[in-house]
Amino acid sequence: MEDQPTCGKGLAASAALPEKLGRVIGCMAEMLEAHMKALDLEDPNARLERDAYEKLAGQQKEIADRLQANANAMAGYHDLPMGKHDEEAMAGPQAMQAFAALVKAKQELLRLLEQSAEEDEAMLAEMRGQEP
């Protein structure tokens, strides 16, 4: 019965989402920090931009760390013993609505990531002096 699905195994399998989201947010913070080095701080607008990026990068690093900690915790519940469930509640409207909302949010995120990745790949190619 080792391959029997459990909520703990489900949590562990779902840990990839916060882990990958944390990685993306962490990379955004690194990008902001790299961008700050290009700013001419003699320019008052560049100083404002630096201050904004510095604040956002710090927040993003905290978010990335928390998402990674959450992913680690989720993965750590892999062997959580299966508890008794109320099957009616599991199939009820609240559970169904929550799951439908999760599915929709993931679909929206997928569309955003696909569009953003295409735009970013074009910009990266331009930065490298290549045709997109």
Write the layout of secondary structure elements.
Layout: H1 7-14, H2 16-36, H3 44-76, H4 87-90, H5 93-127
Helix pairs in contact: 1-3, 2-3
What would you note in describing this structure?
It is a single chain. With 132 residues, this protein is an all-alpha fold. The protein folds into 2 domains: 1-83; 84-132. It has 5 helices and no strands. It has helices at residues 7-14, 16-36, 44-76, 87-90, 93-127. Helix 2 packs antiparallel against helix 3 (44-76). The longest helix has 35 residues, at 93-127.
What's the number of domains?
2
Q: The biggest beta sheet, please?
A: none
Structural class: mainly alpha
Low-confidence stretches: none
Helix percent band: over 70%
Summarize the helix and strand pattern as letters: HHHHH
Q: Label the overall shape.
A: elongated
From the alpha carbons, calculate the radius of gyration and give it in angstroms: 21 Å
User: What is the typical, i.e. mean, pLDDT?
Assistant: 95
Q: Please report the number of helical segments.
A: 5
Tell me how many strands there are: 0
Kindly report how far apart the N and C termini lie.
51 Å
Strand content: under 5%
List its salient traits.
2 domains
Task: Put the structure in a nutshell.
The protein is an all-alpha fold and 132 residues long. The protein has five helices and no strands.
